[in-house]
Amino acid sequence: xxxxxxxxxxxxxxxxxxxATGGMAxxxxxxxxxxxxxxxxxxxxxxxxxxSGLRVGEIARIETDGQGRTRWLNITLDAGGNARVAxxxxxxxxxxxxVSLRLSEDLLIARADAAALQPxxxxxx
Length: 125
Known about the structure:
The protein contains 2 helices and 7 strands, in the order H-E-E-E-E-E-E-E-H. By secondary structure, it is of the alpha+beta class.
């Protein structure tokens, strides 16, 4: 089968129309989305759940890169202390206003304890 100019032109128009409307037809995720690379703001106070689904704290603040993408989550733990967790370990469910982590509660507490043991400033010589 040979394609004529008309067939090629028609194919280009149809392909262009599909590509032009494809982005508009896509909706956001229905459930939780991995936070790595998301541009989010104002999620302070969202509940944080550990890997088993238990509440372990709430978001204190987020840290972003120069382009506004989420890189770190700072979490105030219910057990006391704060934990800093990389965004790729978290899923955001904006509808339910919660963040689910792929870490257990004991690992979060260990991170908070380790951060508390770090010196605030370096010793002067």
